[in-house]
Amino acid sequence: MSDNLVAEDFIKRWETFYGESRTEKIIKNLKQKDQRILVPNSLRTDQDSLKLQLESKGFKLEPTTEFNGLIITYEPFNIVATPEYLSGMFSIQALSSLIPPRCLHPSPKSLVADLTASPGIKTSFLAQQMDNKGTILAIEKSTSRIPALKANLARMGVWNTIILNFDANLFSKLDIPVDHILLDAPCSGTGLKLAKNKRLRPRILKDIFRLAKHQETLLETAWQRLKPNGSLVYSTCSLEPEEGEVQIDNFLKRHEDEVNLLPIPLNIGSPGNKTNWKTPLHPQMAKTKRIFPKLGYDGFFTALMKKCE
């Protein structure tokens, strides 16, 4: 198989891991242009109310049961110019970005850490689940990304969050045990739709192994500060097993007596153990999710882990 938009090196890798038929679908769906999807902010409104308000301005919207979203089928003008958007009644995003926070189920009494927080959409979704109570530590290393994080949290009406501008690799030095951790790790981004990802070039193959090492460090740091019985969700928008199944498989081998994988509470994607890796994966990998690109979703990997007492 050859393709002028995806480097041959990646096509060969995906054929090895997922088979030729699945790889054809991956490439086809990576080229797919998604309709914009609105996700109501439960701190401000609900799906029905938001739909009525926007339709009164001439927008046409189709409800989807996934995350109570609304698919935009017609825009009389750019929807981000509406008062509803500016006042934080909804966000616009690929639905895959909502999977990690949806897995955690934090309570209004929880202390939660979001280790790579900007631009804040996942952080705000955590706050919605917590009814704006408890505390979220939104950690972001890049100073240049802090303004976007602050702006989004303010727009969405989130006030239970403390923004910390420092490297998440140093999180363990804070000596703050937390109930839940969201680690949407920096990755190669090979699962992103091509309209927003121009990086599928041979040079990124080197990045995969460099980033996998960085992800390993972040996982170890996060695990040190997770309370017993606490949960950690790990995710990447990558199609590469080194950043997904293999990363978690190696983590399980290092911490076998203290970690239990939990099923992802969403009826989407394939079990992680279906990936054809060169050696057998841990049996618990069946509880992880490998999500392939499709309408409304980028390619994604998610694992939910509980720390045993």
What does this entry look like structurally?
Helix 1 packs across helix 2 (20-30). The N and C termini lie far apart (49 Å). Helix 8 links the parallel strand 8 and strand 9. The chain has two domains: 37-92, Alpha-Beta Plaits, CATH 3.30.70.1170; 95-307, Rossmann fold. It has helices spanning 8-18, 20-30, 47-55, 83-86, 99-104, 121-129, 146-155, 204-224, 245-254; strands at 37-40, 60-63, 70-74, 90-92, 111-114, 135-139, 161-164, 178-184, 226-236, 259-262, 270-271, 289-291, 300-307. The strands form two sheets. Strands 5, 6, 7, 8, 9, 10, 11, 12 and 13 form a nine-stranded mixed β-sheet that branches. A four-stranded antiparallel β-sheet has the order 2-3-1-4, with helices on one face. The chain is of the alpha/beta class and 309 residues long.
Look at the helices and sheets and give the structural class: alpha/beta
CATH topology of the largest domain: Rossmann fold
Assigned CATH class of the largest domain: Alpha Beta
Q: What percentage of amino acids are in beta strands?
A: 15-25%
SSE topology string: HHEHEEHEHEHEHEEHEHEEEE
User: Into which percent range does the helicity of residues fall?
Assistant: 25-40%
Q: Report the CATH architecture of the largest domain.
A: 3-Layer(aba) Sandwich
What is the alpha-carbon Rg in Å?
Answer: 19 Å
Most strands sheet: 9 strands, mixed
Q: Name the overall outline.
A: globular
Poorly predicted regions are none
Number of helices, where a helix is a run of at least 4 consecutive DSSP H or I residues: 9
Distance between the termini: 49 Å
Query: How would you state the average pLDDT, rounded?
Result: 93
State the fourth-level CATH superfamily of the largest domain.
Vaccinia Virus protein VP39
Into how many domains do the coordinates divide?
Answer: 2
Give the beta-strand count. Answer: 13
